[in-house]
Amino acid sequence: MKPLREWGMRSRIVGLTSGSVVLIAGGAFADWMWLIGIGAWMLVAAGLLEMIYRP
């Protein structure tokens, strides 16, 4: 496995998006708004990275 600094930007965006989907689904299932909120902010961060770092 590569060190974190050698990962490509695409894999970071995919990781953030996947993590946000898991957190939002888990928060919706458990009815925890704070978990949904963290997942939403992760999704916002992934969207911003996607807009800023276009290859």
Number of helices: 2
State the end-to-end CA separation. Answer: 23 Å
Which residues sit in consecutive blocks of at least 5 with pLDDT less than 50? none
| Helix/strand order, N-terminal first | HH
Large-scale geometry: elongated
Structural class: mainly alpha
Estimated share of beta-strand residues: under 5%
- Quaternary structure of the protein: single chain
Helical percentage:
over 70%
Averaging pLDDT over every residue, what do you get?
88
The major β-sheet equals: none
Radius of gyration, in Å, reads: 13 Å
Strand runs, count: 0
Account of the 3D structure:
This protein has 55 residues and is an all-alpha fold. It is built from two helices and no strands. It is elongated, with a radius of gyration of 13 Å. The two termini are 23 Å apart. The mean pLDDT is 88.
